[in-house]
Specification:
It is a single chain. By secondary structure, this protein is mostly beta strands. It has no helices and 14 strands. The protein has a four-stranded antiparallel beta sheet with strand order 4-12-13-14, with no helix packed on it. Strands 5-6-7-8 form a four-stranded antiparallel beta sheet, with no helix packed on it. The two termini are about 20 Å apart.
């Protein structure tokens, strides 16, 4: 999907596939199409075209199978999963705890695991994007802008 941010007569306008958001609209409505919230977990995967959004950042599951972290205002890709599988989904899995107590949650995309990690015996409950442009899998920062 194509979208961009611009300034028109001093008011921010977001142009999104098929629509324009006027200045003064609610912040949630300013996100590009497909945003489902700030995270996804074992009960909610990201389907093709869906994204998690927070502030000026989003992580979108593209239809080509690549999970991509972007800065919304510029459209710049900051991190990609490098996966390719047409119309794949991204699913969060809490993973397993090793005998040493290391936790390995991951995001699964068409058989490829994007690993998170933690050493406190708690895998975390989701994959999320924060307002600082960081994509987290459990408690592991997988990518950032």
């Amino acid at each position: 999907m194509r979208w961009m941010t611009g300034l028109v007569a001093g008011a921010a306008t977001v142009i999104a596939a098929g629509g324009v958001l006027a200045a003064g609209a609610s912040p949630a409505a300013a996100y590009p199409p497909g945003c489902i919230g700030k995270n996804f977990n074992e009960s909610r995967s990201l389907g093709p075209g869906e994204a998690i959004c927070n502030g000026n950042y989003l992580v979108r599951m593209q239809t080509n199978g690549d999970l991509v972290l972007r800065k919304i205002s510029t459209g710049r890709a900051c991190w990609t999963s490098g996966t390719r599988a047409t119309n794949a989904t991204a699913s969060f899995k809490q993973g397993y705890i090793t005998p040493a107590g290391h936790v390995h949650p991951y995001v699964l995309i068409a058989g490829t695991k994007i690993w998170g990690t933690n050493h406190v015996g708690d895998p975390g409950t989701n994959a999320n994007v924060n307002g600082n442009g960081e994509f987290w899998i459990g408690y592991h920062k997988a990518g950032s802008c």
